[in-house]
Give the backbone structure.
Amino acid sequence: VLIEITVLASGSRGNCYRIDDGRTPLLLECGIPFREIQKGLQFRVSGVAGCLVSHEHQDHSKAVRDVMKAGIDCYMSAGTAEALGISGHRLHIIQARQQFQLGSWAVLPFETQHDAAEPLGFLLANRAGDKLLYATDTYYVRYKFRGLTHIMLECNYAADILARNVEAGLVPPALKRRILRSHFSLEHVKEFFRANDISRVQEIWLLHLSDQNSDANRFKCEIQELTGKPVYIA
């Protein structure tokens, strides 16, 4: 079974992805208006088994109330739910390093490093032996993963582009500090690939590229060269 990844939106204006292993379609994030989610799903919203929300920032959670209202269960940490001020029977509180089953997926949340209440990344595995890693809005991933087949990873900026933009006055120093402490750089992404077993990886998706501090073509080429895997830019 091939995992199908559909990008509805990626970046600081909003993030939303649909993943499907042929049995259980899920949403990762809901950071765009619900109308756009409906359109992106060809209005087949009822087919979605659940939505995983990594943290409370609007570009990841904007439509969470509408998604729940539409009958889709949403999964997030207690810290994220509290920061969003939401409750109800569609809300499921999950914890880092405590695996749970969602349809055909076994979902293992893990801690990420970001300026949010209790942010999470997700490792999703199914019975067919597929393993998808999703990590965004984190400046590094402390865990090592084995047997991954699909990787969806933030690649927000390159250190040299960011430095150039700071020098040119395009990025204020305070924003630079925030970016360094809360987002995944090209350099760290490379470190991640070097540290992990990617022998089974079928595809890599680079997510959440910064509008001004990234270069999609360069990121794609450099990660493809390093990993020898097909790389897609979300």
Summary: The mean pLDDT is 95. The chain is about 30% helix and 25% strand. The first helix runs from residue 34 to 40.
